[in-house]
Inverse folding.
């Protein structure tokens, strides 16, 4: 097997999606290694959980930069490169990124968003889905671009919206899907199967499992 890609996971909170990636990477055949977890929040619960797996952790507290996003991102870039990172996975990282960091890691940074993009970009996706009356909702893994919640889509997972749903109930089902599709999407990218062509993701293999880029959950 070719050498596994070194991945940094960026978090701001408890890191539930981070844990799904760590769990997948415990399999030696998985094409990515979670080599570093970074948070902008010193109190992020995910930091301790990552350390329990022996994964290096680091904190770059954005509050120490007094609104200087350029300095924050340049220090983040230097930190990632010092650890030999090859891919970045955003997992609840609650900071808007500037074109500097996005361009520095173009087609090497992925994100998971709790909606079926391009619908419901931004926050409060589950509330908005219920207000709009859509019958399907879900999650999307995509490459990061300079525009928020944009960028080529790698994989999506969908759940039905029930008449009895509350935002919390719907969000819990979507989170289950997130934990399923994020490790699969990272594997596609780390293995080189998924690449960007224009504004689309193309797959280099027509493996039935790999080619299934949409998960329909009950």
């Amino acid at each position: 097997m070719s050498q596994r890609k070194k991945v940094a996971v960026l978090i701001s909170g408890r890191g539930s999606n981070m844990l799904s990636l760590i769990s997948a990477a415990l399999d030696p055949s998985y094409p990515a290694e979670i080599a570093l977890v970074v948070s902008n929040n010193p109190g992020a619960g995910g930091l301790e959980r990552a350390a329990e797996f022996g994964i290096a952790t680091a904190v770059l507290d954005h509050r120490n930069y007094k609104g200087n996003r350029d300095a924050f991102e340049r220090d983040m870039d230097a930190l990632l490169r010092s650890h030999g990172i090859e891919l970045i996975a955003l997992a609840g990282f609650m900071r808007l990124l500037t074109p500097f960091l996005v361009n520095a890691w173009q087609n090497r940074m992925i994100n998971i968003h709790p909606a079926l993009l391009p619908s419901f970009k931004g926050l409060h996706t589950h509330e908005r889905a219920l207000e709009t009356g859509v019958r399907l909702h879900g999650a999307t893994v995509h490459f990061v671009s300079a525009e928020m919640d944009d960028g080529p889509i790698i994989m999506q997972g969908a759940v039905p919206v029930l008449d009895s749903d509350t935002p919390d109930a719907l969000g819990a089902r979507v989170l289950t899907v997130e934990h399923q599709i994020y490790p699969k999407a990272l594997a596609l990218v780390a293995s080189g199967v998924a690449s960007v062509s224009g504004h689309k993701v193309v797959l280099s293999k027509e493996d039935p499992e790999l080619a299934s880029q949409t998960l329909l959950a009950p």
